Amino acid sequence: MQTQVGIIGAGPAGLLLSHLLYLQGIDSIILEKRSREEIEGTIRAGVLEQGTVDLLNAAGVGERMMKEGHTHHGIELQFNGKRHRINMHELTGGKKITVYAQHEVIKDLVAQRLKDGGEVLFNVSDVSLHEFETNEPKIRFKVEGEEQEISCDFIAGCDGFHGPSRQSIPKTIRTEKQQIYPFGWLGILTETAPVNPELIYTNHERGFALLSTRSPEIQRHYLQVDPKDDIANWSDDRIWSELHERVDTEDFSITEGPIIQKNIVSMRSFICETMQHGRLFLAGDAAHIVPPTGAKGLNLAVTDIQVLLHGIVEYYQSGKTEVLDQYSDICLRRIWKAQRFSYWMTTMLHRNQSHSPFERGVQLAELDYVASSRSAATSLAENYVGLPMEIPGKKSTNLSMLSI
After folding, report:
1. Which of 308, 310, 388, 324 is nearest to 52 (CA)?
2. 189 class by beta-carbon count within 10 Å (0-12 exposed, 13-18 middle, 19+ buried)
3. pLDDT by residue (tens digit) across 118-152?
């Protein structure tokens, strides 16, 4: 098999990259180890930055998102039993975020790729990368036990933290950094009406809580728990009791309903600064993971592939490799800012039991400062709605593919 760009992974990064390349007349093949049903059915959160929404619309895959997504102009911070709204729309000159689940983005992109005749190979196994230090990289894999090979000009590793792409880069040249947090999130899906027009982030003596939205009928809520805890220890009654303790105020009580899903996930920050090696380029979770507090995961994946798209288009149009040569450096500048923001949000909002009374006081003062200072609130808002991506030699853009 022959193509121009071999893409490993049919998550948002791989699918969107393939679609954007198609719009530029560049061929690609996507390899995915799971089935279409699995990738479309794995429920994941989705808070989309303004730039991500703009890009999906510009690429012609945003119609359902605009109909079914929930546009939020702000968020609410709750501490000391009081709510404080951060008006992101006002503070950022009219920008906003859209709540639209990641698996819904995947459904839209898969449907578009197949409609356009794109090659997406599901249920592949034994994927391995070869000769990507040369001008003729190869990807070997199996489909239904039969060995196959793709020859291509570039490989995009969009296959997540556990995929083979990052691990194919020699350990001796990979620069990786990690932060493990002593916090876990117990997440639930519940059949209730939305409890609030916007997300509520709560810092409480008993721990962090987040009230979020999925649809008019299904809501997503989170509780800070010990990451080593067992979900079997959390009955539905215990979950609702703890949510009431952390989020109820004098004039608000969370609405209970049937819990249809619950699980516990640990939290960490990870970054592989070696995002390129030869003609292999990492994007999304293959290169970085952020705690969900800052809502940056999917959005960072989108910015990675936007830079990679610019570089590949430049190569095929002019033979130049300036953007591709700087791929890691360009991406890392924004990634580290997103890591900083996610770390700040996580440490500001979660109750750390190892903190001294002094450190607890500083944490509450930080929240009070953000809630009472326009400058501090603007900083939070600018990061939350998405910082611009700057590509040398290109118009400064917040992810508009139209600048290519």
Report:
1. 388
2. middle
3. 999 999 999 999 999 999 999 999 998 899 999 99
Helix, strand, coil % in the chain, rounded to nearest 5:
40, 25, 35
Task: Specify the 3-state DSSP secondary structure of 259.
Answer: strand
Is the confidence at residue 397, as pLDDT, over 70? no
Q: Kindly report the number of other CB atoms within 10 A of residue 318's CB atom.
A: 9
Which residues fall within 8 angstroms of residue 388, CB to CB, at 6 or more apart? 51, 396, 397, 398
Using an 8 Å Cβ cutoff, are 179 and 268 in contact? yes
d(CA 377, CA 368): 10
**How many Cα neighbours within 13 Å face the side chain of 245?**
13
Do the beta carbons of residue 373 and residue 299 sit within 8 Å? Answer: no
Handedness of CA 136, 139, 144, 145 (dihedral sign): positive
Task: Point out which residues pair with 78 in neighbouring strands.
Answer: 83, 202
Question: What is the signed CA dihedral for 317, 318, 324, 330, rounded to 10 degrees?
Answer: -90
Q: How many helices (H) and strands (E) does the chain have?
A: 13, 20
Beta bridge partners of 145: none
Strands 200-203 and 28-31: unpaired
DSSP code at position 28 = E
pLDDT of 78 strictly over 50: yes
Of the candidates 29, 313, 39, 319, the residue with the CA atom closest to the CA atom of residue 156: 29
Are the beta carbons of 327 and 311 closer than 8 angstroms?
yes
Q: Which residues are CB-contacts of 252 (< 8 A; sequence separation ≥ 6)? A: none
The residue behind tokens 């698996």 is 103
> What whole-number distance in Å separates Cα of residue 90 and Cα of residue 86?
9
Query: What is the sign of the dihedral through the CA atoms of 391, 396, 401 and 402?
Result: negative
Catalytic residue numbers read 72, 201, 292, 296, 384
Mean pLDDT (whole number) for 87-105: 95
pTM: 0.93
Q: Which three-class secondary structure state does DSSP give residue 393?
A: coil
How many residues are present in the chain?
404
Q: What is the pLDDT of residue 213?
A: 84
DSSP string, 167-223: HHS-GGG--EEEEEEEEEEEEEEEES--S-SS-EEEE-TT--EEE--SSSSEEEEEE
Q: Beta strands 218-225 and 209-211: pairing type?
A: antiparallel
